[in-house]
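Our preliminary data section would be incomplete without showing what the modeling component actually yields. Below, a chain of 168 amino acids is followed by its predicted structure, encoded as tokens that our downstream tools consume directly.
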Amino acid sequence: MSKYRKTLVVDSSFIARSIIPAERAFVISYKGNAEVIADHPESFGLVNPELDIKKPSIIRVFKFVKQNILKVPLTRENIYRRDNYECVYCGSDNVKTLTLDHVIPQSKGGKDSWDNLVTACKRCNGEKSDLTLEEYGKEIPTPYRPHYLMLMKQMHDIPEEWKHFLLF
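Predicted structure:
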């Protein structure tokens, strides 16, 4: 499987806005709605070998994109990503045992929110049960809503040309 499957989209101000499949990025730029800023070294595998079309690595749309896509949705995967796929209580990184834990238990009024959900292994989650952190006797980093650029940076194999736009 190719590692050159994604394209970084920047707006007219060169601010990173999203990551999309390279095929979609090609169509957007082919239709004239964006310009290709950088290509991946790999080409699309087309039937005609004489047609060498590189996969776009970065495209720039011509309009400033004012959207709420910058708010990271509250999902299990995004909480795992924020917490670096590790249990916040013991540091275990066994992905197969990860669960979500409510810092303030639901039984005590805890909500599903960025500041109340953390990644916990099954063992720690079972030990904590419906205890508060004080009752459980452990401290954890304060959970927070991550910025979308933070989650983009956590991708593996980020192309070198993206790093400038992701503020590395």
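Residues 6-66+148-162 form one domain. The radius of gyration is 20 Å. Preliminary results of this kind motivate Aim 1 of the renewal.
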